[in-house]
């Protein structure tokens, strides 16, 4: 199984992109998803806790048969990728490096903006990766960041098109616009829900990067290049969705975000 985890159910936006890919290419890899709904959000937590939670999340998936781990959560990807790679024996994929790479490829004026949670922004991972990738392309790129902490609860409350949300988006985008970025990474599982509202505040020439789409491209290539791993993945359309806390609100959000009703099973984290 392909294991995907997130700090909550925001990671279903990444699942959706995987399912779109399977549909397009007539594939049927079985997904095993875990959303840590009991401990969400991760975005304002400290590094050590995020690492610990991410490792527990990944181990839960591996114990249940995941052969590959995808970190759907931008915060966990930013803070815990190296830690997971060092502590797990299965391949680990994450959303930050493919998004950074894409941004480096598409920027024309070499000014990239990042919107993310506090932990993602404070990790400085984007600065590091963008510097590394841009050096390879002989580009000199400046990175401008802003933590957009209020957007996660607003999206979860379904406040997508309200005046208040639009004002907050404008405020978060302002420093990036002032810096004249031409590319912005939406570095959080929840932000793509605000795509329309974000685009409305930006010049059409500014390009947006959705990390979920980028990790799907990376996975596609990886499985093609690694047939032995690909053949070890089980195929079934019966995907499994696990959460550490289950309420009506979580069920409703999951249905709304995935665009279909799914069965969520509550599991206990050891
Ligand atoms: N999933 C998180 C992310 O993509 C957002 C929610 C949280 O803070 O846990 O960064």
Task: Spell out the blueprint of helices and strands.
Elements: E1 2-6, H1 12-25, E2 31-35, H2 47-63, E3 68-71, H3 74-87, E4 92-94, H4 96-106, E5 111-116, H5 118-122, H6 125-136, E6 142-147, H7 151-156, H8 163-178, E7 183-187, H9 195-200, E8 207-209, H10 211-225, H11 227-231, E9 240-243, H12 248-258, E10 264-266
Parallel strand pairs: 1-2, 1-3, 2-9, 3-4, 5-6, 5-7, 7-8, 9-10
This protein binds D-glutamic acid.
D-glutamic acid binds next to helix 3.
Note the gap between the termini. Answer: 21 Å
Give a short account of the largest sheet. Answer: 6 strands, parallel
Provide the helix percentage.
40-55%
Question: What's the overall average pLDDT, rounded?
Answer: 96
Which compounds are bound in this model? Answer: D-glutamic acid
How many individual helices? 12
Order of helices and strands: EHEHEHEHEHHEHHEHEHHEHE
Radius of gyration: 18 Å
Q: How are strands sequenced across the largest beta sheet?
A: 4-3-1-2-9-10
- Which residues sit in consecutive blocks of at least 5 with pLDDT less than 50? none
Class from secondary-structure proportions: alpha/beta
What does this molecule look like?
This protein has helices spanning 12-25, 47-63, 74-87, 96-106, 118-122, 125-136, 151-156, 163-178, 195-200, 211-225, 227-231, 248-258, and strands at 2-6, 31-35, 68-71, 92-94, 111-116, 142-147, 183-187, 207-209, 240-243, 264-266. The strands form two sheets. Strands 4-3-1-2-9-10 form a six-stranded parallel beta sheet, with helices on both faces. It is an alpha/beta fold. The mean pLDDT is 96. D-glutamic acid (DGL) is lined by residues 6-8, 10, 40-43, 73-75, 117, 120, 152, 188-190. The site of D-glutamic acid has 17 residues, from helix 3.
């Amino acid at each position: 199984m392909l294991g995907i985890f997130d700090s909550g159910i925001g990671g279903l936006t990444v699942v959706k992109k995987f399912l779109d890919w399977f549909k397009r290419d007539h594939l049927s890899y079985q997904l095993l998803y875990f959303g840590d709904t009991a401990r969400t959000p991760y975005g304002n937590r400290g590094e050590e806790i995020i690492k610990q939670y991410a490792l527990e999340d990944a181990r839960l998936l591996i114990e249940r048969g995941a052969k590959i781990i995808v970190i759907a959560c931008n915060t966990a990807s930013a803070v815990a990728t190296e830690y997971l790679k060092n502590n797990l024996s299965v391949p680990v994929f994450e959303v930050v490096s493919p998004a950074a790479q894409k941004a480096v490829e598409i920027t024309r004026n070499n000014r990239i903006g990042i919107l993310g949670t506090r932990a993602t922004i404070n990790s400085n991972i984007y600065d590091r990766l963008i510097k590394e990738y841009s050096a390879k392309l002989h580009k000199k790129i400046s990175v401008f960041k802003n933590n957009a902490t209020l957007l996660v609860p607003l999206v979860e409350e379904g406040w997508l098109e309200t005046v208040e949300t639009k004002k907050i988006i404008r405020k978060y985008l302002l420093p990036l616009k002032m810096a004249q970025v031409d590319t912005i990474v939406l570095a959080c599982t929840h932000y793509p829900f605000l795509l329309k509202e974000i685009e409305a505040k930006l010049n059409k020439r500014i390009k947006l990067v959705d990390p979920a789409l980028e990790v799907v491209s990376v996975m596609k290539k990886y499985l093609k290049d690694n047939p032995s791993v690909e053949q070890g993945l089980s195929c079934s359309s019966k995907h499994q969705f696990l959460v550490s806390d289950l309420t009506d609100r979580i069920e409703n959000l999951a249905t709304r975000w995935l665009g279909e009703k799914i069965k969520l099973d509550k599991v206990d984290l050891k």
